[in-house]
Amino acid sequence: MKEISQIVEELHPDLEDLEVDRLLFRRRQRSHAMIILIPLVALIATGFMSKNLFLFGMASVVWLIISSTIYHFRAGKLGSAYTNNYKSRIIPRIVKSLDSQLNYDHSSGIHSSTFEDTELFTTEPDRYKTEDLVSGKYGATFLQMAEIDAEERRTRRDSDGDTETYYVTIFKGILLIADFHKHFQGRTFIFPDNAEKLLGNFGRFFQKMGGRSGTRLLRLEDPDFEKAFAAYSTDEVEARYILSTAMMRRLLDMQQRFGKDVRIGFKDSSLILAVPHTDSFLDPSTSLPATDTTQIRDMLFHLSHFLKTIEELDLNTRIWTKR
Question: Which listed site, 8, 80, 115, 227, has its alpha carbon 20 to 30 Å from 61?
């Protein structure tokens, strides 16, 4: 990886060009905010003084719709263009500074069918968004990683008996799929062990129901791993080979870094990792100068934070030949 100072120096000419676009957007944003607010305040004040709140309230709603539409075309599009240009011109070079074999495409992601096929989640999403695809080789390991926002549609009845539709999050975060350094036939899944933490030994009953089709709950020798995770597999012998003592300790260390809700799968000779992540991943801030180095440092940190998994789980060590 290059030094951050070298990366920033190489990017500086493009960052200066982008700063011109950002400043134009910010000026347009401020002016249109005033265009929206001044008539809106005047309409509301007139409504109170004339005691005809309904009429002026309706006028206020109409004005909000009209002015928001104008804002979208006159200012909002400038903000979107700035973000897309930053992602197209800057982030691919930040990604390649970590490994020249990696590629980045802000408009691509991991397909919903691939997300469902991981089996890390049992609910098929009704609304699915993915972006910021990082793919290619990191060292000797091929990977793909993207931001995912998957939601399920639900309905409920309100107090009047009317049906209301709403969405709940299935998963929002980073999905990473990496080539494992050994071929395997079975499917092994590792989930947060919430049942036993909440219910003690009685929670084992609920754990057994939490696996995937054809899998069985495993009892492993590492007590710390057993407290943190519930592991399921279609092939216990193969799973114990994958989940060696060293691998279990690495997975525990990784959980400490990512948080307790991480989900892990070993399937189709790949490692699959789902990490909840609600913060901005690779989106530049329009409130910070494009030339501000802090967000470049933050992006490098976020990327390194996830790519470190390849080193942490020792996937670049090719000691087995895959059949």
Answer: 80
